[in-house]
Design goal:
With 730 residues, this protein is of the alpha/beta class. Helix content is 49%, strand content 9%.
């Protein structure tokens, strides 16, 4: 490590007291007690700041060791330092060994080298852009004045043409309509340079103040969700607020060109907020005048930059096992920050999956997109075509402490689509939630203390047809997981809905073909058998329980009207709340199919191609923590049951490992499995709700990781629920 540091210092141009191995090792032993070591850290940080747009402020004259370490801790956090425990050690002032002190120098040198390389590569591009910018401005001017597009041959006469055209237009304007220019005298190059510097300082001050105001605005709007009356209108408020919020920019758009174009009327500023002005008004708002407001500071030079996202306000909860204290809150805050930082990439991933819908077991392109996404992110061990051709697994581990069991947290992704409808069930958003939650948790944990944890992301194909998760269960993919998470798009936010069991069957009738007009008596009509079975099942529904479901289609009904059909095929789904009930319904349905064959003289073939999907087991502790985290992020959970009676192979997973499968609102009242829902699943509007759900899932996973008692409780509830279901099925 020492030789790498010395080589790096030589390459970045350092020639101070620590440019030899002996001096470097001696200073590293003393760490921040050594003036030479502190001076080297400051020199590297200053050089790095010259190449990077860093937000962390550095106290160059501070003689306080802890303050120096705190400044470096902020800088390392901003630069996403990969050394485990280094950021927290700097922030807490607990780094005392030589190895950590050397790591600090090595990281700063490496970052400075990378910054210098990037600066050298982008220098040429920047010059080209600066050369192109004036030409683009001229093109816009000519377009506005309806002049020919400028070229190199016309450059000498171009400004004369512009001046003439402007004078012609000014003559058409009524007199005194445009005031006199503010700038009436020519300025020297030095004066223009001074004006430019003044504008830069004012722009920086403007940006800082505007950043503060926008953050205050965000916090104010966020606080509306605390009111029970406003919660019912949260989506309406978001719809009205978000477009206006995105239009607010931090950068000042005022340049020296605006100074040239400004007129005298810009200097006429009416002080409408002064007491003298307000006393003359009769507005109810102005009946009471505020006294002089005391000075509370707020100047850009006196305050720190605001956090990327304010931590959510929460009411204090009594009892339970929710993560408390600074560590838990900081971890959850960092989860939200990490997810927000990669929101554009996540939206791009979701859009790529949504734009190329693929049916069950054929999700090749979606599989490749997700595998590439994890591989390029770095830090993940990625296994493409894991067990199934279009399944994958990505894992990340933290912690090397022995004699401690690793807690394995799983996130599931679905990405198969519906034939003919595309992503009308929003599986592109399910994939995005799984990826975002895993990325958010990983990013937050990287800067934490060393403790044993593993994050597993499973890509599970064929939920709509075939049950890819069941294949993965049988192959042992869930064997080492402690808890598993995924979420499904819906019309509301719901922490738990049991879904119901499902079994599909394929029925084929074989008859005898004949001419339908000439020799109909010679035929055996397979379509009659299909229609009779369909009618029998429709009448059977009258005797079914209210929570049982039976639906199907005739996939093949013949070839031509003048041919007695010799082959027909039906596909049916049977659904019940419990597997035991599913067995009873299966017997009734099978009797209808066989009786139709007997009545028409056909042969019948009944197959059940895929395993049954189970109902989802509840886990009250996980549901409670998910609701707490969701409410903190602005979700609204309605009391009572839901009318949704769908099925999912996650139910089978819930019988193998404790988990949660909440439903989430995506900004539409459209129903799943409709063209309208497919459109909504691909819209930008759905992104806020999708990432909010990912944050809630990752925050719930953090609760489990930081609270061993909660994990134990989750597993106990899983065992109780599983035994209860097995008793009911006997």
């Amino acid at each position: 490590m020492e030789s790498d540091i010395l080589d790096g210092l030589d390459q970045v141009g350092y020639s101070g007291a620590l440019d030899n191995e002996k001096a470097l090792l001696t200073a590293s032993e003393e760490g921040f007690s050594s003036q030479e070591y502190v001076a080297l850290c400051r020199w590297l940080a200053t050089k790095l700041d010259q190449h990077c747009d860093l937000e962390s402020e550095k106290s160059d004259t501070s003689e306080d060791v802890k303050m120096e370490m705190l400044d470096l801790g902020k800088l390392f956090g901003e630069l996403a330092c990969p050394y485990k425990g280094l950021v927290s050690g700097l922030m807490e002032g607990e780094l005392k060994n030589k190895k950590d002190h050397l790591k600090i120098i090595l990281f700063l040198v490496s970052e400075l080298q990378a910054a210098q390389i990037m600066a050298s590569k982008t220098g040429t591009d920047t010059k080209i852009k600066k050369q192109i910018a004036p030409l683009q401005d001229l093109q816009m001017i000519c377009k506005a004045l309806k002049l020919p597009e400028p070229s190199q041959q016309q450059t000498s006469d171009l400004f004369s043409s512009i001046e003439n055209q402007v004078n012609i237009l000014l003559k058409k304007v009524p007199e005194k309509h445009i005031g006199k220019p503010v700038l009436r005298h020519s300025l020297s190059s030095e004066q223009w340079s001074q004006l430019d510097k003044i504008n830069c300082v004012l722009s920086a001050d403007y940006e800082c103040r505007r950043r503060m105001l926008i953050k205050r605005l965000d916090v104010t709007v966020q606080s509306f969700s605390w009111s029970d009356r406003a919660k019912a209108k949260i989506d309406t408020m978001a719809k009205a607020y978000q477009p206006k919020r995105h239009s607010l920019t931090l950068k000042s758009s005022v340049s020296l060109a605006h100074l040239l174009a400004s007129r005298e009327d810009i200097c006429n500023v009416v002080k409408t907020s002064s007491g003298a002005s307000r006393e003359k008004t009769v507005c109810a708002v102005n009946k009471v005048l505020m006294g002089r407001v005391p000075d509370r500071g707020g100047r850009p030079s006196e305050i720190d930059a605001p956090l990327p996202e304010m931590p959510p306000w929460q009411k204090r909860q009594d009892g339970g096992g929710r993560v408390r204290g600074a560590v838990g809150e900081r971890l959850k805050h960092n989860i939200c920050v990490c997810i927000d930082e990669c929101r554009e990439k996540l939206y791009g991933l979701s859009q790529a999956i949504w734009s190329a819908p693929e049916p069950a077991f054929k999700e090749k392109q979606s599989h490749d997109l997700l595998v590439r996404f994890f591989s390029e992110a770095g830090g993940w061990t990625v296994e493409p075509s894991y067990i199934l051709e279009t399944a994958f697994r990505a894992t990340w581990c933290l912690g090397t402490q022995k004699n401690l069991k690793v807690v394995n947290v799983g996130f599931l992704c679905e990405y198969d689509a519906l034939p003919g409808l595309g992503h009308a069930c929003g599986h592109n958003l399910i994939a995005e939630v799984g990826v975002a939650a895993a990325f958010g948790l990983k990013g937050a944990l990287e800067s934490q203390a060393d403790f044993p944890v593993k994050i597993t992301v499973l890509g599970t194909p064929a939920e709509e047809d075939g049950g890819g998760k069941i294949n993965l269960i049988q192959a042992g993919a869930f064997a080492d997981m402690d808890v598993v998470f995924m979420a499904h798009p819906s019309q509301e936010d719901k922490a738990f809905h049991p879904c119901i069991c499902i079994k599909d069957c394929t029925v084929k009738y074989y008859g005898k073909a004949s001419h339908a007009a000439a020799y109909p008596w010679e035929g055996v009509n397979a379509l009659d058998a299909a229609v009779l079975a369909y009618s029998s099942l429709s009448m059977l529904r009258q005797q079914l329980r209210p929570d049982w479901r039976l639906h199907g289609i005739i996939k093949h009904g013949g070839t031509k009207p003048n041919i007695i059909p010799d082959y027909t095929e039906l596909e049916y789904y049977m659904r019940t709340p419990l597997l035991k009930d599913l067995s009873d319904l299966k017997d009734k349905v099978e009797a209808c199919f066989r009786s139709a064959a007997i009545a028409t003289g056909c042969q019948v073939e009944i197959t059940f191609p895929y395993p049954a999907y189970s109902n989802i087991l509840p886990n009250p502790s996980l549901e409670k923590h998910y609701e707490e985290n969701g409410r903190a992020l602005g979700m609204e959970f309605k009391e009572g049951g839901s009318s949704f009676t769908g099925s999912t192979d996650f139910g089978n997973v819930s019988f193998v490992v404790p988990g949660i499968h909440p439903f989430f609102y995506i900004g539409t009242e459209a129903l799943n499995h409709t063209p309208e829902y497919a459109t909504a699943a691909g819209s930008e509007k759905a992104q806020m709700y999708t990432l909010r759900t990912a944050k809630a899932l990752a925050m719930t996973a953090a609760d489990v990781l930081l609270n061993p008692t909660l994990l134990k409780q989750v597993k106990e509830e899983f065992t109780v629920a599983k035994c209860s279901q097995e008793q009911k099925s006997k």
